[in-house]
Amino acid sequence: MHRTDEGPKTSMTGRQAELRRLGAALEDGARGGPVRVLVTGEPGIGRTTLLRTFSAAARAQGRIAVDVPCPPHGHQPPFALARQLAAKLAALLPPEDPHRTALDASLSAAAGRTGPPGQAADTLLADARAALAALTPDGPVLLSLDDAHRADTASLDFLRRLLLTPPPARLVLIASARDGESRAGGPGELHELFAGARHIPLVGLAPSQSAALIRRVARRAPTADVVAECHRACAGNPYLLTEVARILRDRPAAAADATPAAALRPAPVAESIGTRLAGLDPNAGKVALAIAVAETHSAADPLLVSHLSGLTLAETLAAVDLLVCMHLVGDDHELFLRHRVVRNALLGRMTLMARNAAHLAAAAYLHGKQAPAERIADHLAASTVPLDEPWAAPVLLRAGQKALAAREPDRARRYLEHAVLAASGEDRRVAILELIDAKIGIDLAQGLHEAVRTLEEATDDALRLPLLARISTALYLGSEPGAAARTTLTAGRAGSGWQQVHRLLDGLHAYPLPSAAQLGDERLAPKGRGLGRRTAAEADFCGPDRVAAATSVVSALRGHLTCRPADAVRDAREALREERGLCLHPVLRLLALMVLTWNGRDEDVTAQLRLHHDCADCHEHPLHRALLLPVTARMALMRGRLRTAHEQLGECVDALVHYGTRPQHPLLLWIVGMLAEVRLATGQGAEARALLREHGGLGGRSPDWLHRDVWLTRARLRADGGDLPGVLADLAEVTGATTPLGPTGGVHAYVHTVDLLTQLGRHAEARDTARALLRTAEAMDTPRERGIALRVLGALGGAPDGEELLREAMRLLAGAHADFDLAHAAADLACLLFDEGRYEEATAELSTALELADRCGARPLAARVRQRLAASEGRSAGRSPLGGVLKLTKREKQILVDAVRGSTNERIATTLHITRRTVELHLSSAYRKLDITGRKDFPHLFRTAGLWPLLVDSAST
């Protein structure tokens, strides 16, 4: 047999699974009756290439393959496709074959057929059947019908009768149809012909296949980022990827590391899509273009598309339905073009002024409908011509602020750049500042450069001071402290005072802090040289009145660290009166407020926070607002609202990390220490440890005053894990450092130190620290702090003094609404009452402590109280760790606790004035009751929540 229908050579990327399915259909056809396969997909998905590749592969295997392409409607007369198929079948037969002779005669008789089948068409059908039978004695015949949606009705009817009435043996029909177009323009016979047929829907290529196709067409290997961008823009569509790759191929090799804008809007794509839509529905092209305009960072509203296209809503939805069926538009309640390349190509066909007009019309329409600011701003920012309407600038400003709050600086910059051009007065000032925030968020160095340039051009303090605040924040938090750039960036405009403030506060965590004389004469003295001349208007820009805030903050910290609360509070209040000077450095307001918080001046802090909302210079900076969260979190912690404190500190840490602050920055580590302390109080010990490890808080450096709380939290984590030698080493660092212990984090630093000393058996040191805490609290002269101090001292003493101190502490703490410390006081009082045998009173206090602990979210304290309640009611299983503790005598507890702390039997005997044999007998009894074998099992005592504190407390009273 002659096989003359070779067809063109093709190459294809991917589609191996689809080729295997087609191969299986061909094998099924070789074994029996006819097989029909319909391949569908969106425009450009590769249907034609798949059919051609499979036909070529079938011919290479010796199969008979006939390719019948269907040209567009109107390009050939009706029934021509049927005649073309019959002619190709005849050409496969030898010239002398009678079936070919009969088929040639039928073709001549049917040459004029243009309508429904008649006798000539029936004869042609019969002869075509006979020819197929002659061609398929040993194998199947493959008919490949490309673009079947274009076939005319008479030809499709001919194919239906050829294949189905009756079905011929060993015939495989593989046809392709474009999604949507068969329903829009094709005849209904196509659906009847392929009813029940096998269906192979083609989807976009996988990312790796897209990469292979781009490399083959572009004849180079673009970077992975370029390939990924092209794949996303084309949704894996082979035709679109090919057009993009052709543009990449024509670029210089040196420019292959970025995707050019032209590559993502290839002109042939727009021409092809436009022509195809025009042939299907005159409204479809208008709607597609309107969607391209209306779709910005979010999908398009159908009503807006209707408005832009000039069509009624019904006409718009009908056209959208066609586009959805063609897989060009997503099928959703809002509209979007599935391929960004198609959208870009359609917009690229418009002139610049036409696009401007369309976007401004969309903005005006959306504003009239009171749409969200960002949707309106998307269209305002897409136009190169500003809209001369009074509402345009405020809309752009609101959208930019929302984008900044959502941490989308690139989108915020686009809105705010247009807002600066469109706004005036106060709106323009705010837009400039927000734009600087966005640029710093995108690139710190470039943003700083832009901020300094804007500062040099500014003429009034209303803009210069908040600009300087942003520069200060970026330099302090976004780079290494003490960066050299700080000494030159703003020298010409800010003056020496600004630089001296930064030089001072960079090393503020060191000790000793400068004295009042040093603050006045050394640290903040203007140098005078190398700064350039300043005009009279600039003379006080960062003069003594502005740097006084920094001087007062450092003095307040010095007074606080040297236990002079009155001086500390006075200087902190003085610093907060210098409202404009606080903008010169991001930590000035934070430190001043923290001094007041540490000294129990919550009313002052609350008033200052309320007044801060009226500050016109720096309150617009989102990070400055975040830096106030540690203050409110500390007050929440002191009032027992642990969950609130955790949320606020976590939000502050997230804001600093997002800003780009390095993990080991002193300020960030300080706030991380506060967050770890709260996590420990809420039972999140593992999370606290991971947080400290992430920020270098578990390192071996000596603690400074700012990070004393970090060190104490680390020691508390060690204690929870049973590492008492590690606790001892950490406490030695804390109490033996050159920095005075002081109330660095408020009175809780003393509280934690006393607790750790008690666990280590350092009772004398614990009492000395508790007395120092009481002296400090009395100097603070605040009920809450005095109540905490009395609670700590009372827990260390026995009855009756201990009970009296604890009851007075509870009275003060209840009046101050300090629920967290009140819960501790109630638990401590219960322990003392138990030892005196006053069980009913003790149980009542435990119930109070449990209710307060649960309300605060203090899970470790609540667990400890529940252990005590269980012990008081005898509800523990006999062989549980708690059950064993309940069986221990007072002497066994004392000896066991000393042994766990690391004391040898000889040392315990000497301390308690008993024999070594007695110590051994008591320990053996304790081991038996706790179901442990010896000292090597001591770590098990720390695995039951609250067990070790219960042992320590009951052994020490």
Class by SSE composition: mainly alpha
Share in β-strands: under 5%
Q: Can you list the strand order of the major beta sheet?
A: 2-3-4-1-5
Poorly predicted sequence stretches spanning 5 or more consecutive residues: 1-10, 481-488, 490-494, 521-540, 875-879
* CATH topology group of the largest domain: Serine Threonine Protein Phosphatase 5, Tetratricopeptide repeat
Name of the CATH superfamily of the largest domain: Tetratricopeptide repeat domain
Name the overall outline: elongated
CATH architecture of the largest domain: Alpha Horseshoe
Largest beta-sheet characterization = 5 strands, parallel
Describe this structure in words.
This protein is mainly alpha-helical. It folds into 6 domains: 16-201, Rossmann fold (3-Layer(aba) Sandwich); 207-264; 280-444, no CATH class; 485-529 and 539-627; 686-873, Serine Threonine Protein Phosphatase 5, Tetratricopeptide repeat; 881-956, Orthogonal Bundle (Arc Repressor Mutant, subunit A). The chain is 64% helix and 3% strand. The chain is built from 49 helices and 5 strands. The chain has a 5-stranded parallel beta sheet, sandwiched between helices. Helix 6 (153-164) links the parallel strand 3 and strand 4 (171-178). The longest helix is centred in the middle third of the chain and has 18 residues, at 425-442. It is elongated, with a radius of gyration of 41 Å. The relative contact order is 0.04.
